Amino acid sequence: MNIGKRIAALALTGAVVGSGLIATTAGTAGAATQGEAVARSCYGNALSYTKDAGTHIYPNYPNFYYLIATSNCADINIKTNTDRYVKVCFLTSGGGKDCQDNYKLATKGDWTVIATNVRDNAKFQFYFRSDAKSTGYSAA
Fold first, then answer.
1. What is the pLDDT of residues 10-46, one digit of tens each?
2. Is 27 in the same domain as 40?
3. Domain coverage including residue 122
4. Are 87 and 102 in contact, with CB atoms under 8 Å apart?
5. How far, in Å, are 25, 30, 63 from residue 39 at the CA level?
6. Same domain, yes or no, for 51 and 105?
7. Cα dihedral value 15, 18, 24, 27, nearest 10
8. Half-sphere exposure of 131 (CA within 13 A, CB side)
9. pTM
């Protein structure tokens, strides 16, 4: 009888300790830093894009419209399906374009910040160094 009670007590202790570890591990694994939460919010609202061959600008023909920066992201980001050199051109209040001086290398499958500290509702286009077709995602 003594052995049976000891085994039962040991089993119960193991179950209690084990459940505490599982609860602690699960709580820690689900926690996200503020930076991770912001990135999820930004990238979670990403839009797919397809830039046709023969042009450097996206979006372009036939619409010739601009993308609009949102409050979801503080930056303009791109995730290309092939390595691409990209910069951003902003629509100015006078109706002209203000393009960044330098291209940034966006590597295949990675999010790349192309422009930082972009104001909400800023209108912009991506300008690719190559006129080859490009596909991927953008978040702004």
1. 444 444 444 444 444 444 455 556 555 555 678 988 9
2. no
3. 34-139
4. yes
5. 23, 16, 30
6. yes
7. -80
8. 4
9. 0.71
* Predicted confidence (pLDDT) per residue in 67-96, tens digit: 999 999 999 999 999 999 999 999 998 888
User: DSSP secondary-structure letter at 82?
Assistant: S
Look at residue 60 in the predicted model and tell me its pLDDT.
81
10 in the same domain as 73: no
Instruction: Give the model's confidence band at 124: pLDDT under 50 very low, under 70 low, under 90 confident, else very high.
Output: very high
**Tokens linked to 88:** 């951003």
CA 12 from centre of chain: 46
Count of domains observed in the chain = 2
Pick from 89, 105, 108: nearest CA to 97:
89
How many degrees, rounded to 5, is the angle at CA 5 between CA 3 and CA 7? Answer: 70
